[in-house]
Specification:
- The complex is a heterodimer.
- Chain A is an alpha+beta fold.
- In chain A, 27% of the residues lie in helices and 25% in strands.
- In chain A, a hairpin with a 2-residue loop joins strand 22 and strand 23.
- Chain A is globular.
- By secondary structure, chain B is α+β, with helices and mostly antiparallel strands.
- Chain B has two domains: 76 residues, Ubiquitin-like (UB roll), CATH 3.10.20; 70 residues, [2Fe-2S]-binding domain (DNA polymerase, domain 1).
- Helix content of chain B is 35%, strand content 16%.
- Classes of the chains: A alpha+beta, B alpha+beta.
Chain lengths: 721, 158
């Protein structure tokens, strides 16, 4: 991948007759042989829209617009286009789009890719096919409605005529772009021939043969390598640094202080060291001495002290239905428990990296494994004063996102270093940089009280939520919607909130909020059901059987996922001592997921043997990708529930996988997925399976051991998994 | 600087390197062989795994200057056409999610199957415990290794 490795063809292509469709899809006029279309003629390529290109040799190229972080979008999105275009999947080539505003949202986040892309992708495939059918019909003098398509061919059954798409390009290119309302879009699982199948990832060959693909695989002529040292205390400034000594180290081409800005999500102050190889830069860094100026000393100890104090206060009431105090006062039984989970890190296998090339022309070209490249472009423009039109971002495959790469800190650092040195630069953070300068998932405390009536129903729910804030607002990745269940599922409900001020950088972490607090809710439900003397499944289904006012989630779809997970797990079967099942349901990011986990215990050492999952995200696009997300989320939940990031003197205390020890293969369970395929529009699946996985496991641990895990990581309860 | 001759994927490379420069960085920054990945730098995550005389080793911890006379295999050298049994099995089980760790997983699996053509779950868990996967593809890795064992038994060497 020397030089122009990932430079894109798309950027140079001329699109014609751009029109914005009602759905937001950009349908672009047919390009072949049209005015200013010299390139198109030379390229011999028909470009019906931004997502599809068909060459005269029959090659069908489908462009994937969103960054790929392992969530499977680079396979799933083109599958949707291919399904509607009626081409054989094995004949499709997939190409990654760069950041290009014509595609609209290009973000890995919020599990929004699938629902947002669904219409545009189907319009792209169906619209191109519409033109091909029209082209065939006019060539043959038949009605387009009599033409069918299959595997890259238009067929007119009664006349026996057929043509490959490649033969129809000239005729198709002369036609006007269809009105989107004239297109019949496939939408139901019954309509699909490709969607719903198990399709291996389009990048598998490159991954399995070690070909360049990821951010740091970019190689450019004359490229140098950089490290960037920042203050261990978040936001600290450089007072002075021994730059002269660093410049004397072997292979060093540059070293300098970057003043940076005050913004925690921007260009933080630090020292850049640039060398002929990354290892030389990192070796010189070991000699670096920096005097920092810091302004805070946040610590886990202090957070805990404040949380304990706040627990005794009333907090701000954010919602109150009915009369919680009266209902608790008259309840047959009151259950009270407190839950806690710590800060955690994203810990992507690929530490932050970015390659940037500031050119003499004033153009900035960037190769970034970014979940939100548009934010990266805005930040670079703002901090470096380069107009956005002069910043081009290529999207490399991302070595794990989980929300971390929504932030553009490595991008703006690489861009700054390249502009300052005037050379193409590859910035690679160390693992230690990555873990000490994350945007952590915030910790929180949940103090619950539930009132149970004589029928064993939960009739009151009081919740004091202690979270983190900055300048009076909850920090990124923290907070809780007042409408979140069990609001709406109990007649008397109150949510009170208190905040601890912090300077620790926080941010979205896979299913932000949900992946943390679902553990607290669903574990506490377990306690309530036990106190009420009811079966866990029956208690939860009963909870989902009625609502008070607007239901906080679709009760039927949620209940159905729980029913199927329980049924497949054999809920209610007799278990030998030391073995137990636990369950949890949840709804977030448009997806309904329930899990049942089976745990076997050997004293405090437990093993999660198997997890059964019930999932409803509408129709499944790629069965393999969908299962992968469920499997990955379960492992992620089990891994993260055993980890924590702590702070002292304003700095993170963990630094690498020896003290933040991700799950290894021997601890990973088997996972069995059961999808409820409905006609609802498809939703993303990168996030919904994680939230209920943690409490399904902790509830199973209780069933197996009698130990109720109310605080994470598990080690606080003496449990290892 | 040390003059060193490295045999990588059957090819000889002669170059001058600082005596303590790890093989990983020689591969990545000097030879532009970027399939071996940096992740922890402490030899505990396995993303940088290569085979040295057939055994998995963490290239971030191995000084290149000490690799003279050894047979080094990187992910680029496994089977460039992707037809090695572990590669075929990995694709068919669609193991990769982000894919960053998978080179290390494949080479470790290849070494396992060479010494144990029919590994149990326990054998797999033990042999593969050195390679972390943050995406959680472990369940599929077990399945893929069993599938690869089958392919190897049917013909192709592991």
């Amino acid at each position: 991948m020397k030089a122009k490795c990932q430079e894109t063809d798309l950027g140079r292509r001329t699109f014609l007759k751009v029109s914005l469709m009602a759905s937001g899809a950009l349908m672009v006029g047919v390009g072949l042989g049209r005015p200013s279309g010299a390139n198109e003629l030379q390229n011999d390529t028909w470009v019906p829209n931004l997502y599809v290109r068909i060459d005269r040799d029959g090659t069908v190229t489908i462009v994937s617009k969103n960054p790929e972080a392992g969530q499977g979008v680079k396979t799933a999105f083109p599958m949707v286009v291919a399904e509607c275009l009626e081409v054989d999947w094995k004949d499709v080539k997939v190409e990654q789009a760069p950041l290009d505003d014509r595609y609209g949202r290009q973000v890995v986040g919020g599990s929004r890719g699938t629902p947002d892309g669904w219409d545009d992708l189907r319009i792209a495939g169906t619209g191109a096919l519409f033109l091909l059918k029209q082209a065939a019909a006019s060539t043959w003098g038949v009605k387009a409605s009599e033409c069918t398509a299959s595997k890259g061919k238009i067929i007119h059954q009664s006349s026996g005529k057929s043509a490959n798409y490649a033969e129809l390009l000239d005729a198709a290119a002369d036609l006007p772009v269809p009105d989107v309302s004239s297109l019949q879009l496939k939408s139901r699982p019954d309509d699909f021939s490709l969607l719903g199948k198990f399709v291996p990832g389009v990048d598998n060959h490159r991954i399995l043969t070690g070909q360049p693909l990821f951010g740091a695989d970019t190689r450019l002529e004359g490229m140098v390598y950089a490290v960037y040292e920042k203050c261990p205390t978040f936001g600290g400034r450089v007072k002075n640094a021994n730059i002269d000594e660093i410049l004397k180290q072997p292979g060093i081409t540059d070293a300098f202080v970057v003043a940076g800005t005050d913004e925690l999500t921007g260009l933080l102050p630090g020292v850049a060291i640039v060398a002929e190889s990354w290892w030389l830069a990192d070796s010189a860094r070991k000699k670096l001495k920096v005097e920092w100026e810091t302004s805070h000393s946040d610590s886990t100890e202090e957070f805990n002290r404040q949380a304990a104090k706040l627990a005794g206060e009333a907090g701000e009431t954010r919602r109150h239905d009915g009369d919680v105090d009266a209902a608790l006062g008259s309840a047959q039984n009151v259950v009270e428990a407190s839950y806690y989970y710590p800060f955690v890190s994203h810990a992507n296998m690929e530490p932050q990296t970015c390659t940037a090339h500031y050119k003499a022309s004033g153009q900035m070209e960037i190769w970034a494994p970014s979940q939100a490249p548009k934010s990266g472009r805005e930040l670079v423009s703002r901090v470096l004063g380069i107009p956005e039109q002069q910043i081009h971002i290529n999207l490399t495959r991302i070595g794990g996102g989980f929300g971390r790469k929504l932030r553009s800190d490595a991008i703006v650092e690489a861009a700054w270093i390249s502009k300052k040195t005037g050379r193409p630069v590859q910035l690679q953070w160390t693992r230690e940089d990555d873990m000490r300068h994350d945007f952590y998932r915030p910790a929180a405390w949940h103090h619950f009280r539930a009132g149970i009536d004589s029928a064993g129903r939960m009739v009151a729910f009081d919740h004091h939520f202690i979270t983190f804030g900055r300048n009076g607002k909850t920090v990124s990745g923290a907070g809780l919607s007042p409408g979140h269940y069990p609001a709406g599922l109990v007649p008397n409900f109150r949510l009170r909130q208190s905040m601890i001020e912090t300077s620790v950088p926080t941010g979205p972490w896979r299913s932000p909020g949900h992946s943390a607090y679902c553990f607290a809710y669903q574990s506490f439900f377990d306690e309530v059901a036990l106190a009420a003397g009811r079966d866990q499944l029956e208690f939860r289904l009963d909870l989902l059987s009625r609502s008070y006012g607007e239901p906080p989630l679709d009760l039927k779809r949620t209940g159905d996922t729980l029913r199927i997970a329980a049924e497949k797990a054999g809920w209610g079967r007799s278990m030998e001592p030391g073995r137990g099942l636990g369950m949890a349901f949840h709804f977030d990011h448009g997806g309904f997921v329930s899990h049942v986990a089976e745990v076997v215990a050997d004293g405090p050492k437990v093993r999660v043997e198997k997890v059964w999952s019930g999932i409803d995200v509408g129709p499944v696009i790629n069965l393999s990708g969908a299962r992968n997300q469920v499997e990955g989320c379960v492992v992620d939940a089990l891994s993260t529930a055993q980890l924590e990031i702590t702070f002292a003197d304003g700095a993170a205390q963990q630094s690498n996988f020896h003290d933040y020890s991700l799950l290894r293969i021997g601890q990973a369970p088997e996972i069995e997925c059961h999808f409820i395929q409905s006609d609802n529009p498809p939703m993303g699946l990168g996030e919904p399976p994680i939230a209920p996985a943690t409490p399904a496991i902790t509830n199973a641990i209780f069933a197996a051991t009698g130990t109720r895990i109310r605080e994470l990581p598990f080690s606080r309860a003496g449990i290892t998994a | 600087m040390s003059q060193v001759s490295l045999k990588i994927n059957g090819q000889d490379h002669s170059l001058e390197v600082p005596p303590d420069m790890p093989l990983l960085w020689v591969l990545r920054d000097r030879l532009d062989m970027v399939g071996s990945k940096y992740s922890c730098g402490l030899g505990i995550c396995g993303s940088c795994t290569v085979l040295v005389n057939g055994r998995p080793a963490q290239s971030c911890m191995l000084p290149a200057a000490k690799m003279e006379g050894k047979e080094i295999v990187t992910i680029e050298g496994l089977a460039p056409d992707g037809n090695h049994p572990v590669q075929r099995a990995w694709n068919e089980e669609d193991v990769p999610q982000c894919g960053y760790c998978q080179g290390g997983q494949l080479l470790t699996a290849k070494a396992l199957l060479e010494r144990n053509p029919n590994p149990s779950d326990k054998d797999i868990d033990e042999a593969m415990s050195g390679v972390l996967c943050r995406c959680g593809t472990y369940f599929r890795i077990r399945k893929a290794i069993k599938r690869a064992a089958q392919y190897a038994a049917e013909g192709g060497s592991a």
